[in-house]
Amino acid sequence: MQRSRLAALLAAILTIHALPALADPPVIIKIPRLTLEASEKIARAAVEACRKEGIQIGVTVVDRSGDAMAFLRDTLAPPVTIEVSRQKAYTAVNFNAPLSGMEDRFTKPFSVGKVEGLVFSAGGVPIAAAGNIVGAVGVSGAATGAQDEACALAGIEAVQMDLEMAGP
Predict the structure, then answer these.
(1) Is 159 within 8 Å of 42 (Cβ atoms)?
(2) Where do the domains of the chain lie, and which CATH numbers do they carry?
(3) Predicted structure pTM score
């Protein structure tokens, strides 16, 4: 009986000492990344979708950190579309949400919507692969935010199958 108590106590001590090792976070984290090729394909498809509607746009695709991966400005799109599309993509990736659902959220003074570089106007959409955010696309230049967003979504649609097949 004494021996079984000693064995149980020893097992409990070993278990308690092993628990912190199991709970320690990993030293590195593997993060899925959007490739340059996918970014270019998204941007090109967004421009083509807007062209079909007679709309000239600027489109920016950013990685999960908000850094630009690809940018296109159609021939007659105003120069302001360069910065606005980048800010839309940057905002969408940082909030991991389509901007069309956030337009009215940040209108109070001193809210996060007043932070320089953030734009809460429809046309920015996050890009996910296998449940992980990998970037965002921002479109600027259409007459309405809904048109900008439709073109952004068309860009993502061009690589949707590849995004869905991306494994962990």
Answers:
(1) yes
(2) 36-165 (3.30.450.150)
(3) 0.80
